[in-house]
Amino acid sequence: MKKIHSLADMETFAQQLAGHLEAGDVLLLDGDLGAGKTTFSQFLGRALGVTRTISSPTFNIIKSYKGSTLYFHHMDCYRLEDSEEDLGFDEYFNDEAVTVIEWSQFIADYLPETYLKITIKVISETERALQLEAQGAHFEKIKEALEHV
Ligand SMILES: Nc1ncnc2c1ncn2[C@@H]1O[C@H](COP(=O)(O)OP(=O)(O)OP(=O)(O)O)[C@@H](O)[C@H]1O
Ligand SMILES: [Mg+2]
């Protein structure tokens, strides 16, 4: 469990995480409506060198951006609830990119085997608690590093 005290703290966390990411990495973002999934994704994208405005992909489902060395794919699967639709997710996970998925539970069948899942819990207006779950050695290492800074 990692405690986030403010919006600025969330940005610092995103920057620290970005420093550990490699091509092909996938992050799952869980948490209630308004928990901060899109806000975190915007901080992460900026930390990866995206200069274009990162807006919520709720309507488009997938938006892709160019970062300084990697592409940044930002997905929001909220609208895919119950649809079982495969939009070709695999191709996004395998190219030279980092992918962040809001509401990943709605594409459970299409998720990769390794990922870092971040569950955001609202504590107060600006405080959040982050629960990290790693699948795979690479993400276990990242989780350890993030929990001990
Ligand atoms: N520490 C914090 N971390 C993240 N967001 C915060 C924090 N403190 C305040 N906020 C505010 O909480 C709101 C989070 O909204 P955001 O759209 O990011 O949530 P979301 O989880 O993507 O929601 P949705 O499920 O609708 O996509 C924003 O207005 C943001 O400014
Ligand atoms: Mg969102």
How would you sum up this structure in a few lines?
The protein is of the alpha/beta class. The protein has helices at 7-18, 37-47, 89-94, 137-147; strands at residues 2-4, 26-30, 62-66, 71-76, 97-102, 115-122, 128-135.
Query: What Rg, in angstroms, do the CA atoms define?
Result: 14 Å
CATH topology: Rossmann fold
Could you say what the CATH architecture is?
Answer: 3-Layer(aba) Sandwich
Tell me the distance between the termini.
Answer: 12 Å
Helical coverage, percent range: 25-40%
The protein's oligomeric status is single chain
Write down the overall mean pLDDT: 95
Summed up, the helix count is: 4
Please give the largest β-sheet.
Answer: 7 strands, mixed
Count the strands? 7
Placed side by side, the strands forming the largest sheet appear as 1-7-6-2-5-4-3
**Stretches where pLDDT falls below 50 for ≥5 residues?**
none
Just give the CATH class: Alpha Beta
Pfam families: TsaE
GO molecular function, one term: ATP binding
Family: Belongs to the TsaE family.
Protein name: tRNA threonylcarbamoyladenosine biosynthesis protein TsaE
